[in-house]
Amino acid sequence: MEPDSSRPAQAGVKAYVDVIVAQAAWRRCVPRAEAIVARAARAAGMEGTIVLADDRMVRRLNARHRGRDKPTNVLTYEHPAPEIILALGVIRREAAQQGKKPAAHLAHLVVHGALHLQGMDHHHPGDARRMEMEESRILSRIGVANPWKRA
Question: How far is CA 60 from CA 25, 67, 73, 81, 125, in A?
């Protein structure tokens, strides 16, 4: 695992985001993955760690902490420190199914995870709509197309 620390030199200048590439294939699938992740996280106001993992790691964590023995696209943890963990295979498959570039889907899921860490959720239709609108607003600021708009 390689940390890509983006800590600012001065407190309060910028939120810090540590990106850990736990699965090297991320770099082949999404060129500049670390920069994309850090930019999306900062745009969403997240401070913490983001792990670019594989499906096996995410499946293991999902089974252990959520009782679901399958990989998912993104996991978030608030404690002991904010952390987002992303599964390469799931994200790559979803991007292909949705006709999106993996980089855009990755940015979307980082923002999605960051909003979960801020208390937003999508279990009810009204909450889901508010979360989708906030995701779209944040993504537009960093030049990523609205993921909820049909092509």
Answer: 19, 10, 13, 20, 30
pTM of the shown model: 0.89
DSSP annotation of 119? T
CB-CB contact of 47 with 27 (8 Å)? no
Q: Give me the DSSP letters along 42-93.
A: HHTT--EEEEEE-HHHHHHHHHHHHS--S--SEEEE-SSS-EEEEEHHHHHH
Range of the domain at 125: 2-141
Nearest in space to 58 (alpha carbons), one of 83, 32, 33, 27: 83
Domain count, the chain: 1
Q: Is residue 146 part of a domain?
A: no
| Domain annotation covers residue 49 | yes
Amino acid 14: pLDDT: 61
**Residue in 36, 49, 102 with CA at minimum distance from that of residue 75:** 49
Residues 1-26 have pLDDT tens digits of 444 444 333 444 466 899 999 999 99
CB 75 within 8 A of CB 62: yes
Domain assignment present for 148 = no
Q: Which CATH number is 96's domain given? A: 3.40.390.30
